[in-house]
Protein 1
Amino acid sequence: MRKPSVANGLRDELVLQDLRRTPEERVADAFALGARDVEAYARANGVGRLKAAQMIQAMRAMGRKPSRCAGPSR
């Protein structure tokens, strides 16, 4: 059992709150976080939302190695 502390109490409380939520609520929160990130990136770089989303997508793809499964068949 964990030693009682403020941090452990808060962590337990947050876990219980999350478990009470439906999967749809959790997915909606994840999408909202993504939208806020795009807005923040757009403001910081002086571009529109669409351009910011494209730039973020390009950065995510940069440096990725294609899967061997996706390569041409031999």
Note: The mean pLDDT is 88.
Protein 2
Amino acid sequence: MALERQVEKLKHEGKNIVWYPQDKQAEALECPAFELLFGGAAGGGKTDFLLADYAAGIPEWGKAWRGIVFRRTYPELEEVILRARELYLPIGAVFKKQEKTFTFPNGAWLRMRSLDSDQEVHEYQGHQYTWIGFDELGNYATDFCWIYMSSRCRSAAGAPCFMRATANPGGTGHAWIKNRFIEGFEPGKIYTDAEGMTHCFIPSRLEDNRILTGMDPDYEKRLNRLPGHLRRAYREGDWDIVAGQYFDEWRRDKHVCKPFPLVQGSYYKFYAFDWGYNKPYALVKLAVSGDGQIFQYGELYGCLTGEINKGVRESSPDTARKAKQSADLEGVTDLIADPSCWNKQDGYPAVIDAFMTAGFRCIKANNDRVPGWTRLHELLKTEDEHHRPMLQVFDTCLHTIRTIPSLLPDPHRGEDVDSALEDHLADALRYGIMSRHSRFPQQQLRSQTGIRTPPKRWDTLRDNGF
């Protein structure tokens, strides 16, 4: 609102204001990260940000400021060009229709181009740009165009170089964009990758665009009429949506929580485990309260770094030693494991032998898949008296948070999860919630403490400063 008052003051002084940023747009314009993704919900002012971000470099860098904006096709680009004309022509730009390029009085220029396939990107070999923008990056099924064009982002004149993109959840590029910008990254925070390059995600929702909601108050109603997953994508900007997802109850803002102290005697802790060698192994750390509320407070996931659904090929004794190290610190003795862990193959010891040797009390899991998934559905949907789901996951469990929402139904058995997907942590969680430890928590607490009535719930402790 302070910015809007400044704008009104300038207008009162007779200054011509072509455009001014709203709060989220202003935050994105100030971001110095090399790669920036802006957006989420429909109507968040994404295209205006993209055009303004390029324009911010024009006054200082002049002819050294070289930009390009991509959309998949020229028809898609028409709306961007129309809006660019409205913003750029009043500040002296000339639009060359044949070349689809805006040129500015001090020599800066911005090209508008279509880029429909990975093959077409090679046409830009040898080009150099200081600023590269992709409008609706989610229309690209892979990250190849984005990665390749980042190698064209350079300046012999010393101008700063930026990659900028807008996107909504749910496009063909949903998975790679989520993995690159969203999953495990705090919005608005700048991160540095292994090569030393910085990246950031700044979300924008419809309510951040006060101009649009003021001029067209019925737009929100039209978004709310969309089918479930599309409404979550375009109205809520929810990156956990997948069309046809199996656990459509999952909401990050409801089912993911900050870690808090798990007071001994108020919770019974145990582990649940799904073995994997070529595929990832998965261990979930669970704590259940006396009234049956379950928290996943940790995970151990044997997946190759930077890969999806590829195991680390670690031996069972090594995995058991890792698990026991944390179990000793946390006072955990019980491991609920996939029944297949008891199988011996080709004369080799059973996987479970390594965990028994390490000192775990090992219990065969109930491996009835559909009843297990049904219980997981129920725990995600059911709330306690404080409107908190009966199952929540600490925000440190990054792989669980990544994989649960991406699971789809089995195409041949719709009531089951498609086991060809990355379902290992979901399997481990299923073993845990089907165990007696979670179904009869008071018995476990009594065996641990000798107290028949469990102590007060964690929320009472937390409300009093814990």
Note: Residues 128 and 152 are 5 Å apart (CA to CA).
Protein 3
Amino acid sequence: MNPKIEVFRLGTSIFKGKMLTLPFKKAIIQAKGQELFGDDEPCAIQESQIRRTLVKEMLAHFDEELSGERHIQWMQWLDFDDPEALTMKRR
């Protein structure tokens, strides 16, 4: 549920780590917090569950990689510039 991944922008590595530590945009965390808990300012415990939910949704579509070209809706969740230029691979 928490694989090690690497994120690239135009071929350059910009993030290495476990999926649960991905830098999700605050707006995504707040929106999912509202959806799951009716609270757009989730506490740390709720935020942990939100991150697990987001990662689970991404993993459902993660074969060898996620790319901004084919999976823009999930790459836009990340707090990186140019989501269409991102690629995420398992390590």
Note: The longest helix spans residues 44-59.
Protein 4
Amino acid sequence: MPRVNLSINQDMYDKIKHQADIQGISVNNMIYSQLQKQYGTDEFDYIVALDCLKQDAMEQDGYFCLWELPTFRSIDDMASGSNSNESPEQIRARLGKMFHDSVENGQVWDVEIYTGKIEIPQHKSKRPGRAVVYTKKK
């Protein structure tokens, strides 16, 4: 995937940052979204999908991974319904990164990254695989 190095003035950055903060995403994701709308043929809307993930996360109790959220699980169906040039795996990777960044920046209401150990029946204490575990703030 090609990378773009972009330099802009502070005034433009501040405007983009303000809009990104309102939508609860990073500046990079905001710029990507705008470029996608302007030049892309992809009809998959990451901003809408991220908002759905945030809503799903609000409805969770206890610990959860992205795979437990209905929106994240249904990306195969959402991707097949759009004219996306990206595979469902690429969409999941980008959307997962967007969600993770939003949680790290405190933009997902009362959700945080859980760094402790999870007690699993049979007295094993471990984190499931390499998946990031989220939890509600206490």
Note: Residues 41-136 form one domain.
